[in-house]
Design goal:
alpha+beta, single chain, 8 helices, two-stranded antiparallel ribbon
Length: about 200
């Protein structure tokens, strides 16, 4: 017999079982280190493999000048800094990119700043498009790979730029219906289970 438990009850059970959960990472092995401190004094240590996504192969990783030449002026400096850090494409001193650092390099290269007043097709990010369509980001990327949803990526790891108008095309609507139609019977309950938050996280 199936037992339905609401999220609030699951939260209470979690607080009874766990004192805290500590997360760390081991970059050498690309693993997440999870230490669970149970109420009662015991603890459990787990190693979980981290999924590598959106990474450049070592022989194709761009340098910062190449990236700014391609992306400078196409994105606001703040968004470009986030993109460079995600690649990763750090400055020579190894520190993170900031809006100021991006602006200084862009100006040294003679690249104009992003101008929001210039006429451009209205676009939306992949995350925002997935939310608007009611599907997960993985499903949205599959629609892009299949050519159902048109999208532009100025270079690997740069944000996808998706035309807002494309979200209302018949092809995209059909693709979204197919995705939703393949969801398991208890998908809604599964989504509710994923919202459970452990103490310490």
């Amino acid at each position: 017999m199936e037992c339905a438990t609401d999220a609030r009850t699951k939260q209470r059970i979690t607080h009874i079982l766990f004192r805290e959960v500590v997360l760390d990472r081991d970059d050498k092995t690309n693993e997440a280190l999870v230490t669970i401190h149970w109420n009662g004094g015991r603890h459990t240590e787990l190693r979980v493999s981290r999924v590598r996504t959106g990474r450049y192969p070592a022989d194709r990783q761009p340098n910062s000048v190449e990236a700014v030449r391609k992306l400078g002026g196409q994105l606001p400096d703040r968004e470009l800094a986030v993109t460079l850090n995600r690649m990763p494409c750090k400055p020579p001193d190894g520190k993170a990119w900031t809006t100021v650092r991006v602006r200084e390099l862009r100006e040294r290269l003679g690249i104009e700043a992003f101008n929001p007043a210039l006429p451009r097709a209205q676009t939306i990010s992949a995350d925002a498009a997935a939310t608007r369509l009611g599907i997960c980001i993985g499903s949205l990327h599959r629609l892009i790979r299949k050519g159902v949803l048109p999208a532009v990526q100025l270079m690997h790891s740069a944000p996808w730029q998706i035309p807002v108008a494309a979200l209302d095309t018949d092809a995209v609507k059909t693709g979204v219906r197919d995705i939703i139609g393949r969801r398991p019977k208890f998908y809604k309950r599964f989504q509710e289970d994923k919202t459970l938050r452990l103490p310490g996280i």
